[in-house]
Amino acid sequence: MSAVPSPRTDAEPMAFTGLEFARGTVSAGGLAIVITSLGWTAVYFPMMALSVFYIVPTAIMATVLASGPAWLLGRTLRRVRRLALHLVLFAALGGAVGLLTTYAFFISVSGSAPGSNVADALPYALNGVCGALAVALARHRVARRARRVDAGLPPHATCSDPDAAAEDAVVERLASEG
């Protein structure tokens, strides 16, 4: 059981603490680095080593700058129980951040935005999709962890066997009550 009481109530089933928000922000940034690096490796294979030097600082800066809009979106959705809607909207936020970050990167490196041909659209599409996946996955992970903690379960499954994990949770709960 957590020492901090859950902020979630019937009226605000998806409320969150500052720590949960920070955990989601760090998770989104880390996932953005990993997913975007893998995406660029798949599309531009020899560029992977070089792209990491650009991806890491850019993803960290984008995560910091997007944390304000993410906080506002989370606060706006705290009364909405459906996780699917949260995932769609957070994916849209991540996609928008990916697109804006790509645009800002092109402006900072070359002084102008890329042209309108198909080859110039690939970085936008790639970073938009990677951003959407990273932010939606981070939101899902944080929500799943919060639900486990609220249910009195350990934050992470301790065993790959669901029956054994459920039994362990019951034993731990009984031990803490007795």
Q: Largest sheet, described in full? A: none
Spans of at least 5 consecutive residues whose pLDDT stays below 50 are none
Counting DSSP E segments of at least 2 residues, the number of strands comes to 0
Q: What is the count of helical runs?
A: 5
The value of Rg in angstroms is: 19 Å
Question: Any overview of this molecule?
Answer:
- It is a single chain.
- With 178 residues, the chain is mainly α.
- The protein has a domain at 32-150.
- The chain has helices at 18-43, 48-76, 83-110, 118-150, 162-177.
- Helix 1 runs antiparallel to helix 2 (48-76), helix 1 (18-43) runs antiparallel to helix 4 and helix 3 packs antiparallel against helix 4.
- The protein is elongated, with a radius of gyration of 19 Å.
Brief write-up:
The chain has 5 helices and no strands. It is an all-alpha fold and 178 residues long. The radius of gyration is 19 Å and the shape is elongated.
